């Protein structure tokens, strides 16, 4: 893995932000000497996934892999905490893992300055977690999870909105059962990924996030709501798409407009809502999350899903079982072909299919519709080390394998498919 240190426009913001945060923090560190601490974590995971069409990946921002590989789930995280005084501190975190796109900004998970206003209120500025999932903050820290990885049906897309650049205000209050925390954030996020022939980039602007968390000794409840406007979409051939209506016969103009409107998302509003909880009773641990993603952009269409997981502690061994699902709302097609077929002569309809084939394949490749069952066991053989074995069985529906990669030279599979993944993982924190 090589990290690209070139800084195009999309990378410059977090790098300048990182520098300005720590410069600002140093100017306010007069109450006492600055204290700096370092910590980290690693997941060393060996994964085996063999398939004649699919290539396994655990996140949309990773490369698809086949056969035996350390790449899909191995992670190294490095974190620095700087306490400037009683009110100000800063956190920086870099996560090294397999990535499609290797721009340095993609590896910066956290870079924020925090001000503790009083015992209830605090504020952050910089890059911080959206906290949009039950385990957003430590989804990469395998040692704090039962699983080798969080369920991909819920967490594979977290890379796009796992963190954001902006401002956050949070409030925490003691309660009879434990504590209540509410946070409101506003800012933006940039998604960068590699596609065939170049890059795909998009901005999540006007990004607003509301989080509510209730926590007790034996249970935790979390809810989140995200709203954002999609903007500045750019990818290979996008100018040809935008100019499509002027380059086709008048008979095809309505369908060209439909295609452009579906492919180019600028100005579209997306929302995401999730609820999740964790409950411990004696040696039994239950986890569940549900999400509802509302979007009419065909390259990241609306969907619903979630998972339920149970684990049981037997000494220093914990077996677990997880059921998960991700169900799309939009049909995997760039235009309404059924309607087009009813309006066009047969020959013209076939021409339209050929004309839109490349765009339609992109939509099919970005369609997610699957379910899975996972079983595994975690062995804590040392206070700072664990070993895990996990087996996953995935089933994808017709044109629904977008959470995984497709092997080179193949189109998105039309048929329903199954994929088995076996993982061995060592995790630690330091």
Evaluate the radius of gyration: 23 Å
What portion of residues is helical?
A: 10-25%
Parts with pLDDT < 50 across at least 5 consecutive residues: 5-11
The neighbouring-strand order within the major sheet is 1-4-5-6-7-8-9-10-11-12-13-14-15-16-17-19
N-to-C SSE series?
Answer: HEEEEEEEHHEEEEHHEEEEHHHEEEE
Q: How many strand elements?
A: 19
Distance between the termini: 23 Å
Count of helical regions = 8
Overall 3D form: globular
Query: What would the average pLDDT be, to the nearest integer?
Result: 92
Report the major sheet: 16 strands, antiparallel, barrel
Notes on the structure:
The protein contains eight helices and 19 strands. The strands form two sheets. The protein has a 16-stranded antiparallel beta barrel. Strands 2-18 form a two-stranded antiparallel ribbon. It has helices spanning 9-27, 152-155, 158-161, 238-242, 253-263, 337-343, 346-355, 357-365, and strands at residues 35-49, 54-55, 67-69, 75-83, 88-97, 108-116, 121-129, 163-174, 178-195, 198-216, 219-234, 269-281, 284-294, 303-312, 317-328, 368-382, 385-401, 405-406, 417-429.
